[in-house]
Amino acid sequence: MAESEVRIGGADAGEEGDVEMQGGDQSDDVVEISKTGASQDGTTGAAADGGEKPAQRMTFVDSLKSPMISLLVGTGSSQTRLTAHKALLTRSPFFSEKLTSSTSQVDLVDEDLDAISCFLEYLYTGEYFPHKLPSGNLEPDPEAPRIDGSGAQLLKHARVYTLAEKLGMPSLKSLSHSKIHLITSTALAELAYARYVYSHTSRDDLTIRKPVASFWGQRSHVLRHETEGSFRDICLEYPEFSFDILSFVLDQNERKSHRGGGEEESGKSARKRARGI
To answer: pLDDT > 70: what percent of the chain?
Structure first.
């Protein structure tokens, strides 16, 4: 709670030398105290000095006192109703625009339930499961295999990434993208992830697209044999994926020629994470 602003004046009316003390981000009252400690004016506000009142700071406790908003996620038999505090939801520009003084429910029929759950966990805690450990790795998930063979783990974080983009949450977007780089996966899982990226992100989103193209540009001559024709299918389905890979390979060859036939590239994944086969 903010403290009142206190002014301690001199004995003579002409003395200036006030001492101002303000607590928190707000200043509600100004109390004039003479040398004897007597209150001269207990009602003078900050506006008396011609300045504007600073905006009141919203504490976490204040957020928990705000109204509860229902979030209707999905459709049909799988539709789920979640609830969250309005003050926390409005940290997202998306919800800030949708939530008026009379709004009690927001329909999210096209959103993924797990991604919304991760978003809410992030709002309340600043993280979402699995958490990043101080070592830089992800905490173990007892329900997930050590190697992502289907792409489920990659897609979990990819869906959080695209949701964060929609909700205007750049810090959550960055966190989810960093977790993608920590998943150990197979070629088929990588292909499922690439398909999602090229079907759910914009062409100019190089943050997530460039590492995908780099990964396949360095390894497609080997990995395409492990994907049972799926690599060819995605190349035909998403020409941008093919073009980005081709561009990466041509850029690599151009750099090599500029080096005058230097050593071959190591072929390591640009995403700097292990990949199981």
So the answer is: 74
Nearest CA to 107 out of 63, 129, 74 is that of 74
Please list, in sequence order, all residues whose beta carbon lies within 8 angstroms of the beta carbon of residue 170, skipping any fewer than 6 positions away.
Answer: 164
CA distance 94 to 163: 11
* DSSP helix/strand/coil, 16: coil
pLDDT mean over 108-121: 97
pLDDT digits (tens, 9 = 90+) for 6-63: 444 444 444 444 444 444 444 444 444 444 444 444 444 444 455 566 667 889 999 9
Prior bond to 130 cis, omega within 30? yes
Q: Indicate the DSSP class of residue 78.
A: G
Asked whether 194 and 234 are in contact (CB, 8 A), the reply is yes
What angle do helix axes 170-180 and 206-223 make, rounded to 10 degrees? 10
Distance of CA 118 to the CA centre of its chain: 10
**Closest Cα to residue 70, out of 87, 82, 79?**
82
**Cα–Cα distance for residue pair 111/103, rounded to 1 Å:** 19
Q: How far is CA 181 from CA 147, 200, 217, in A?
A: 13, 18, 17
259-273 per-position pLDDT tens digit: 765 544 444 444 445
Segment 133-137 long-range contacts (CB within 8 Å, at least 24 positions apart)? 136/182, 137/182
Q: Tell me the CA distances in angstroms from 230 to 58, 221, 226, 241, 269, one per residue in order.
A: 51, 14, 9, 13, 20
Output the CA torsion sign for 141, 162, 68, 72.
negative
Give the Cβ contact number of residue 41 at 10 Å: 12
Using DSSP, state whether 7 is helix, strand or coil. strand
Question: DSSP 3-state assignment of 87?
Answer: helix
